[in-house]
Design goal:
Blueprint: H1 20-28, E1 32-37, H2 74-85, E2 94-99, H3 109-120, E3 125-132, H4 139-149, E4 153-161, H5 165-170, H6 177-189, E5 193-200, H7 207-218, E6 224-229, E7 232-233, H8 237-244, H9 254-267, E8 273-276, E9 287-288, H10 296-310, H11 316-321
Parallel strand pairs: 1-2, 2-3, 3-4, 4-5, 5-6, 6-8
Antiparallel strand pairs: 7-9
Helix pairs in contact: 7-9, 9-10
Length: 332
């Protein structure tokens, strides 16, 4: 199941941005919930292929749910995740298996086929979302995923993190932006849905630079994007750098961060789905400069309110540059 035939974006929830909920209703006809699972993969930036220790900001334990346990069969992880979300979602919600921790195309193709088949064999799973790195795909893997996408929903979510090679080097990413562009383009060319993940606030990246780089994001054939603020977690190399050189980092309040996001969305192509704007970690993971009293829903409401105050919509800056108003719904 691909989205190549989608000729326009659909914001049926009357939000001033293209929400993931509206996208799911268009593709699936209902709301969808991702269920994180761990297949026990690792990362070339950890096993010595590209480096060791991972990216300087990385702490996988901080965003991996407790029910997401690679020691358990994937079917059992999915059942545990469904139980976890059962009181939080509508009864008619559908489910996608979300291969989330580490790099989920970083294994021989035969192992990937087996792991993905395990998830798709679950009676309640309607597709896969596969998080990975741009340097962990090749022609054979993409060809296989393209064939699979003809049968079910497949989205490959690439950790791009930044469009700046200098920023990628600063966080020990282990690949450049050209690798990300190549992977995204090769994936989209095969008719596979592509998501991109970007971290805002990496060292030496001022707001003005982030706004300018939206043009580069617009040039990628992405269906979805995730933005979130840099979280500086105790025990990471990023935390040590922050302690030694705090001047290299952005010190946003929630309000200034939302202002930046609002201006980024005004510059973002209106057909790109905005899936996430903030990242949160459990309280036991101490982070510097976090907004511990605000949850994800609070930040979304702040963003929508700010866009309403500006009488702004996703992509309207692009249209205004050409003296054309976007065809978007009224905000209520």
């Amino acid at each position: 199941m691909t989205t190549e035939s989608r000729s326009e974006f659909h914001t049926d929830d009357n939000r001033p941005y293209y929400s993931y909920g509206a996208y799911c209703r268009f593709i699936f006809g209902r709301q969808m919930q991702k269920l994180p699972v761990s297949a026990g993969f690792t990362c070339p930036n950890r096993d010595g292929t590209k480096g060791t220790g991972g990216c300087s900001f990385c702490s996988n334990d901080a965003f991996t749910p407790s029910y997401c346990d690679a020691r358990q069969p994937i079917a059992r992880q999915l059942d545990a995740a469904m139980a976890f979300y059962s009181r939080r979602i509508r009864p008619d919600t559908g489910f996608l298996a979300y291969f989330q921790p580490f790099s989920n195309t970083y294994a021989p193709l035969e192992e990937l086929e087996r792991r993905y088949a395990e998830a798709l064999a679950h009676p309640h799973i309607e597709g896969l979302v596969i998080a990975t790195r741009p340097d962990c795909v090749d022609e054979r893997k993409l060809d296989f995923l393209a064939e699979l996408a003809q049968q079910t929903y497949i989205c490959i979510e690439y950790g791009i993190e930044s469009t700046s090679d200098a920023a990628l080097r600063a966080v020990n990413r282990g690949h450049d932006f050209a690798a990300a562009r190549r992977a995204v383009e090769q994936t989209a060319r095969r008719g596979i849905t592509v998501g991109g993940h970007f971290i805002l606030g990496l060292p030496d990246e001022p707001d003005e630079t982030l706004l300018d780089r939206v043009r580069t994001i617009n040039s990628l054939p992405l269906t979805t994007v995730k933005f979130h603020q840099l979280q500086i977690l105790d025990g990471t190399r990023m935390a040590a750098l922050y302690d030694d050189h705090p001047e290299r980092f952005r010190h946003w309040s929630a309000e200034t961060y939302i202002e930046l996001l609002a201006e980024m969305l005004r510059r973002l192509r209106p057909d790109i789905v905005v899936e996430r704007i903030v990242n949160q970690t459990p309280p036991r993971f101490r982070s510097r400069g976090s907004w511990s009293n605000l949850r994800s829903g609070d930040l979304w409401r702040m963003l929508e309110k700010r866009l309403l105050e500006k009488k702004a919509h996703q992509g309207d800056f692009l249209y205004l540059c050409n003296n054309v108003r976007p065809q978007t719904p009224e905000i209520h």
